[in-house]
Amino acid sequence: MYRNGNPYAIPSTIRDRLAEFNASIEREEEKLGLLVAQLQDVLLRAQRQRSLNNALLSSIRRLPPEVLSEIFLHAAADQRKMDLTKPGHHYHFARVCHLWRFVALTTPALWTDVSVKTVETPNIHNLFAHEFPLAGEYPLRVRLEHPAWHAKLDEGRATRSWDLLLQQSHRWQTLDLALDYHVFCGMTPQPVSCISLETLSSSLGVVDLERLTGSSAEVPSIFSSLADAPRLRRVELITGLIPGTHSLRFPASWRLSHLVLEVKACGSLARLLSLIRQLAPTLRTFSLDIIRAMATFLPPPLNEDVRFPKLVEFTCFRGACFLFQHIAAPKLSSLSIGRHPVPLSSYGAAPLDSIAGRIGMCANLLELLIIDVIWPAESSLDTLRCLENLTSLDLREKKDEYVGRYINNELFVGLTRGGVEVEGVVTGPNPACPLPRLERMRVVLYKDSEERPGLIAALRTMALSRRNVEEDGGDPVLIPLRKFSSSRYRQGTTEKKTILSWDD
Q1: Cis ω for the linkage preceding 281 (within 30 of 0)
Q2: Side-chain half-sphere of 430: how many Cα atoms within 13 Å?
Q3: Alpha-carbon span 448 to 489, nearest angstrom
Q4: Which residues pair with 290 in a beta bridge?
Q5: Phi–psi pair at 20, nearest 5 degrees
Q6: Domain assignment present for 71
């Protein structure tokens, strides 16, 4: 009862012992804290991976096959153009994974471009036979060609692949031919039904009708085996030579609205007139280019013009220019003409002048392109004065022999608006300035034309005089020239040097 000290005091030994216990617990807490952080990170990554796994299984989060098919079609568009002449289709995206391969193989539109050769190996046919069903029942874009590496064929015989295609001719939407015509006839001896055919493009080399029928036999129409084509509206025909004397014509059942005809060598325009007269009632656009005309090419003057009641766009180059003198097209709004045959002396000046005068009779003409012609400046200006509705004029020199024969100082002076200030100088009066509604103009000069004194200055004055037009100044009142371009050109190169241009 006489003991001293605080009975509630904790001995130091106990305090030290408890401190050791607490320090040990704190060390364990630190270890557990690190483990908890690691476990939380593992848990978070596991949750994210589970979400990704679920996304792969969720149809709402996957790219639909239809969208993937559309992407493939856009990716394959340019590749199909490059590979159309090669057997089979080579789509690299189909090799990425089994899913992409499946979508590619089940997208019929990827397999509708079909290319067949006039000669083929068993392996090529097997590849074709494997790929052809992938197009399903879709319309087909068909190309038949003779390989460049193979010798010319004396006669054509249908290959196994072509036989397979002939059975599906009702699905042809476009047909592209690159072979001699007699080879095509040999490969397609019987008429075929082409009820879906809309466009026919052909580069036929030689079209020898007498070889097929004999000189005394009745000549069938070209492409007679394709006569059953009620939807065919566009034909592009390029031929190297049409020997013999027979006239060229298409099946009577065709009702074409667009025709492009390029003949590399023709002995007489009369051989083409029956074809032109046949198609004239329905054509809306017509392009004719006769690259080389024989000495006997031009026929006697026609008794009556060939009428084109629906024609709105006409292009005629080289030997075809002279046909323009004998057509009547009241709705013609766009004309491209030029590249007269050389030497020009063999044709004389009268036919050229009559062509220029004929252009002046096209009252509804809106667009005019003239390339490499020889027309006197005064005759040209008289023609342009008749074209009061013309809105677009394109003048080009492409060859040395035509330099200055149409595009010259006199022409530019005649087109210059009078009584306006251009670069500090007032232009002379020109009350007969043609083309009051001209809004767009392009001039391409042969590069050597820069040596002609005053030509560039006359060009600049003409263009600038028509750019800023005020209603109360100058003579006569013109629509402003809103778009103008002029450049120099050198044949055989892509070099062009701009002279003056604007687009207001």
Answers
A1: no
A2: 25
A3: 9
A4: 263, 318
A5: -65, -40
A6: yes
Check residue 418 and report its DSSP letter. Answer: B
Q: Please, what's the b/e burial string for 20-33 (b: 16 or more CB within 10 A of its CB; e: otherwise)?
A: eeeeeeeeeeeeee
Residues in the chain: 504
Question: Given its phi and psi angles, is residue 208 left (phi above 0), alpha (psi -120 to 50 degrees) or beta?
Answer: beta
Domain hosting residue 77, numbered range: 54-111
C-alpha span between 269 and 314 (Å, rounded): 17
> Side chain identity at 33, as an amino acid letter?
G
**Tally of domains in the chain:** 1
Type of residue found at 104: A
Q: CA-to-CA distance for 372 and 340, rounded, in angstroms?
A: 7
With 0-12 / 13-18 / 19 or more C-beta atoms within 10 angstroms meaning exposed / middle / buried, residue 303 is exposed
**407 close to 398: Cβ distance less than 8 angstroms:** no
In a domain? residue 105: yes
Per residue in 122-143, pLDDT (tens digit) is 888 888 888 889 888 999 999 9
Task: Please choose, from the candidates 178, 167, 184, 28, the residue with its C-alpha nearest in 3D space to the C-alpha of residue 115.
Answer: 178
Looking at residue 428, what DSSP letter applies? P
CA distance 239 to 209: 13
Do strands 313-318 and 306-307 pair parallel, antiparallel, or not at all (unpaired)?
unpaired
pLDDT tens-digit series, residues 15-51: 888 888 888 888 888 888 888 888 899 899 998 888 8
Residue 188 has pLDDT above 50, yes or no: yes
Whole-number Å distance between alpha carbons of 181 and 409: 48
Is there a domain that residue 98 lies in?
A: yes
Task: Determine, yes or no, domain membership for 373.
Answer: no
